[in-house]
Amino acid sequence: MRRTLLLLAGAILVLIAAIIGRMVFQPGPYSFAGGTEVDLASYPNGAALTGVPAELASTDPRARAEYVTRMADCEACHTAKGGKPFAGGRPFVLPFGTIYTPNITPDPETGIGKWTDAQFLKAVHQGIAPDGTRFYPAFPYASYTMLTDADVLAIKSYLFSLPPVKQANKSNTFGFPFNQRWLMGIWSSFFNSDRRFRPIRERDAAWNRGAYLVEAAGHCGECHTPRNLMQAMDQHNKFAGGQAEGWNAYNITGDRTSGIGGWSDAEIAAYLSTGHAPGRGVASGPMSEAVGLSLSKLTPSDIAAIVTYLRTVPAIRSDRLPQPAGPAPASPKLASIDNPVGKRMFEGNCASCHAWTGAGAIFDEARLTGVRSVNDPTAANVASMILNGAGQPGTGRPYMPSFAAAYSDAEVAAVANYVTARFGAKGSSITPKEVAELRRN
Amino acid sequence: MLEFTINGEKHQADVPPDMPLLWVLRDVLGMTGTKFGCGIAQCGACTVHLDGVAVRSCQLPAGRVGDRAITTIEGVGNTPAGAKIQKAWIDLEVIQCGYCQPGQIMSAAALLASNPAPDDSDIDAAMAGNICRCGTYVRIREGIKHAARS
Questions:
Q1: Burial B120-137, CB ≥16 within 10 A → b, else e
Q2: Which of B55, B100, B122 to substitute to test the interface with A, most A CBs within 10 Å?
Q3: What CATH number corresponds to the domain at position B124?
Q4: DSSP H helical segments within A311-350, as ranges?
Q5: Taking Cα atoms as reference points, which of A95, A90, A60 lies closest to residue A73?
Q6: Number of independent structural domains in chain A
């Protein structure tokens, strides 16, 4: 009897160790590709895989530095809504409290004006501030660590060319034990490789350039890869879908149903560079910022390299994302949906652009048919879209207003559930409380 | 140079393709019957027909019209449904201040053309996106039913 208990306890311990081991010992971000990692110097023309693409190699240094800064998309996080670019202050609401991004303009008192090159490298590669305190991994140094020294210093030179903005950093609101920044040292020892990008010898230059853009600079996995219990990217489920500020960052693996395996190269390229591909919806929320501030500024060759790389990411099926539904009937009346408030909201606010079929009444950007957000049974992105809207009016680009001020949580939930029921495969049951949560982001 | 077919006539306009059709109609071609309300497709005042379908012209880039036929309030009276709606509007004195009414008539005419006998729920579905500051909704509903009966 005692022997059996001991054996059982042993087995449980081994299981726990295996689970922790799997969590802690993560595969590299592109180890799925196999092959041999080599130094940049030993890859043919390896330096061209980093920095700016060849067609920009002869532009002036500031333009090149700006391009590298766009590649890494520093501006999106380091700018508050309506605030000065790069001056920080943007809140991120996390389960442990709210964290505010810091000022990275060259102001000597409130920004990074006094930082040396070595200090800036240490911050971006290792997540350590000049005074030795640790940054939280909300700052994606686990990705940026792969950037070359030259590219990190190019970013620094661009930031230092900007006008300094005097704006004090806000302190975060984390409680114990999450306010113990030294713990991030332990986190980093497991989850930050602190290794620069190494190309795969067997892969061509476009693939390796794509890997550098996606993994090091673009840090796509920070939102599109789910996080484990330790809040690190779970590379076992690489690009299978994560979260960002209440939005679902969808599966971008090669799975045909829940990922982008069914998208053509041209569709992926159009989505990345313009925020829309016909029938694929529009980049919204954090992704619209990634497109607007970063991806839309990249050259066609770099977008093509990203597509080349993404195409090779192994397919992972997200079970919660069903095969998208086809077009809805033209008739507004659907006996299967008992949601009078949602229907009233839809007919007054939505139908004139989206149409009762979901085909889009004015432009393809408003098409709901086949779009993942309306087929996502959480309705998180539908509700976030209703709250935030999309685009800017008067730009000649499609625009959707924010309905956050006009409608209550219950009304937003009702219309979100109406939209997923009418146009999606499964329907949703998002609650007013969940909508209230989304408003906080 | 973009080419449009409006109320059966060809028009040309030297406008950027991202200019909203409403601006082309009002500011370039001088067809001011179609009204500007909100500019964000939320009020319906700018409604026109594209191949008979009601569309908000304030959000429609001119370059995306293509070869679809445009009908505006200036020409809708030449369509059977449009003529019935306009007569009903006069018979019942639907209009109060009138600013939203070109859009109301365009939406109502498109509804009647696709559905000759709309019930209340059909009218809600087709007309809820057209806002009337004077609150003529009851008369609009009556007008559509009156036109359907005629």
A1: eebbbbbbbbbbbeeebb
A2: B55
A3: 1.10.150.120
A4: 340-345
A5: A90
A6: 3
User: A392: pLDDT confidence band, cut at 50, 70 and 90?
Assistant: confident
Cross-strand partners of A243:
A248
Q: Would you call A329 an interface residue with chain B, using a CB distance cutoff of 8 Å? A: no
Whole-number Cα distances in Å, B30 to A325, A356, B24, B35: 43, 32, 8, 12
Is there a contact between A362 and B44 if contact means CB atoms under 8 Å apart? no
Smallest Cα distance from A404 to chain B, Å? 15
Do A224 and A182 have their domain in common?
Answer: no
Are B59 and A399 within 8 A, CB to CB? Answer: yes
What range does the domain containing A287 cover? Answer: 220-310
Mean pLDDT of B88-103: 98
The answer on A297 and A356 residing in a single domain is: no
Specify the residue for token string 């809805």. Answer: A328
Of the residues B25, B51, B71, the one at which a domain ends: B71
A371/chain B closest Cα distance in angstroms = 21
- CB proximity A116 to B under 8 Å: no
Q: Is the pLDDT of residue B80 over 90?
A: yes
**Chain A contact for B97, CB < 8 A?**
no
Q: What pLDDT was estimated at residue A211?
A: 98
**A425 and A346 within one domain:** yes
- Whether residue A341 is predicted with pLDDT greater than 90 in this model: the reply is yes
With a pLDDT cut of 90, the percent of chain A lying above it is 87
Contact A309, A211 (CB under 8 A): yes
CATH number for B29: 3.10.20.30
Which residues in B90-114 are b (16+ Cβ under 10 Å) and which e? eebebbeeebbbbbbbbbbbbbbbe
Residues 8 through 27 of chain B touching chain A, CB cutoff 8 Å: 16, 18-20
Which of A352, A354, A356 to mutate against chain B (most B CBs within 10 Å)? A352
Q: How much is the average pLDDT of A372-386?
A: 97
A334 touching chain B per CB within 8 A: no
pLDDT value of residue A24? 73
B26 and B40 inside one domain: yes
Contact yes or no for A394 and B39 at CB 8 A: yes
Q: DSSP per residue over A1-14, as a string?
A: -HHHHHHHHHHHHH
Our CA-based measurement puts residue A348 at a distance from the nearest CA of chain B, in whole angstroms, of: 4
Residue A275, pLDDT > 80, answer: yes
Helical residues (DSSP H) of A294-360, grouped into ranges: 300-310, 340-345, 351-354
Nearest by CB to A356, from B40, B56, B125: name it.
B125
Q: Tell whether the model's pLDDT for residue A19 goes beyond 80.
A: no
**pLDDT per residue as tens digits for the range A186-218:** 999 999 999 999 999 999 999 999 999 999 999
Tell me the residue range of the domain where B19 lies: 2-71
Question: Over the stretch A113-152, which tens digit does the pLDDT of each residue have?
Answer: 999 999 999 999 999 999 999 999 999 999 999 999 999 9
Mean pLDDT within A172-191? 91
What confidence category does residue A394 fall into, taking pLDDT thresholds of 50, 70 and 90? confident
User: Would the CB atoms of A333 and B61 count as touching at under 8 Å?
Assistant: no
